[in-house]
């Protein structure tokens, strides 16, 4: 498993060259690997992420944000992982660079058979890159479903409100679900369903009992008393 972090400025050690940055995880995980093998892997991975291998002696400050994120991805790929946690990997980048990095991640996924857990607040990115989506509110899972099903028929009231906030040029009047109140503080979570103070469908049970994530149809899981009781 490897991880790609949100901020490509903070996640690379400014005192290490690209080569040192890429070498470190490989040598740590493969104690007997030869120098030649490491060098070959560095060149291959740099080519794959679109960074010129002749720049291996450069330091992070000599690269743009997009190039740094490519180097972070290269660092993750160096140990040939099966699973990568990508924590908001494009949200610190310009929109044009975001598309390049997303395409790079999707190409790497196809070529290497990778699985990503992709954490983001950007719903267009979610729709573009995901196979399955898990929606969270205040640290709790609300809904887990295949991407097409989730975007076409969201079941949890929070997912419905979230998706209704996506601007739609064909639906200007819109069916935007306006939520009342503020998000409660995560250090003092409300009892029961954490969404109950803002949910238009909350009842007395919602205020005292935490809803379990249950499979309501094949591949779709929802944590909501209203859905479980058939009210929603
Ligand atoms: S459990 Fe109750 S409060 Fe929570 S989302 Fe469902 S209906 Fe709303």
Brief rundown of the structure:
This protein has 232 residues and is of the alpha/beta class. The protein has nine helices and seven strands; from the N terminus they run βαααβαβαββαααββα.
Series of secondary-structure elements, N-terminal to C-terminal: EHHHEHEHEEHHHEEH
**Order of strands across the biggest sheet?**
4-5-7-6
Q: What is the CATH-assigned architecture of the largest domain?
A: 3-Layer(aba) Sandwich
How much strand content do the residues show?
A: 5-15%
Biggest β-sheet description: 4 strands, antiparallel
Q: How many runs of DSSP E, i.e. beta strands?
A: 7
CATH top level of the largest domain is Alpha Beta
Can you describe this structure?
By secondary structure, the protein is of the alpha/beta class. The chain has 2 domains: 2-129, Rossmann fold; 147-228, no CATH class. It has 9 helices and 7 strands, in the order βαααβαβαββαααββα. The protein has helices at 18-29, 35-49, 65-77, 95-112, 123-129, 147-152, 157-164, 204-208, 225-228; strands at residues 2-4, 83-87, 115-119, 132-137, 140-146, 214-217, 220-222. The strands form 2 sheets. Strands 4-5-7-6 form a 4-stranded antiparallel β-sheet. Helix 2 (35-49) packs across helix 3. The model has no long low-confidence stretch (mean pLDDT 94). The structure holds iron/sulfur cluster. Residues 157, 193, 195-196, 199, 201-202, 206, 211, 224-226 line the site of iron/sulfur cluster (SF4).
């Amino acid at each position: 498993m490897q991880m790609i972090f949100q901020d490509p400025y903070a996640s690379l050690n400014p005192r290490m060259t690209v080569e040192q940055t890429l070498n470190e995880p490989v040598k740590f995980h493969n104690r007997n690997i030869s120098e030649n093998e490491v060098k070959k892997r560095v060149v291959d991975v740099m080519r794959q992420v679109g960074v010129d291998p002749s720049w291996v002696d450069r330091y992070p400050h000599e690269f743009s944000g997009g190039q740094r994120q490519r180097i972070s991805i290269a660092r993750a790929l160096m140990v040939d992982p099966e699973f990568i946690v990508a924590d908001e990997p494009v949200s610190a980048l310009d929109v044009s660079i975001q598309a390049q990095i997303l395409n790079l991640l999707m190409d790497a996924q196809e070529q290497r058979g990778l699985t990503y857990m992709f954490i983001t607040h950007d719903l267009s990115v979610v729709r573009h890159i995901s196979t399955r989506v898990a929606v969270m509110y205040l640290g709790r899972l609300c809904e887990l479903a295949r991407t097409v099903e989730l975007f076409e028929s969201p079941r949890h009231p929070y997912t419905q409100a979230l998706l209704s906030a996506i601007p739609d040029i064909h639906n200007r009047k819109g069916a935007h679900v306006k939520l009342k109140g503020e998000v409660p503080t995560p250090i003092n979570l409300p009892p029961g369903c954490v969404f109950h103070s803002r949910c238009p469908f909350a009842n007395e049970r919602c205020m005292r009992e935490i809803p379990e994530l249950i499979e309501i149809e094949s591949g779709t899981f929802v944590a909501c008393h209203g859905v479980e009781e058939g009210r929603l």
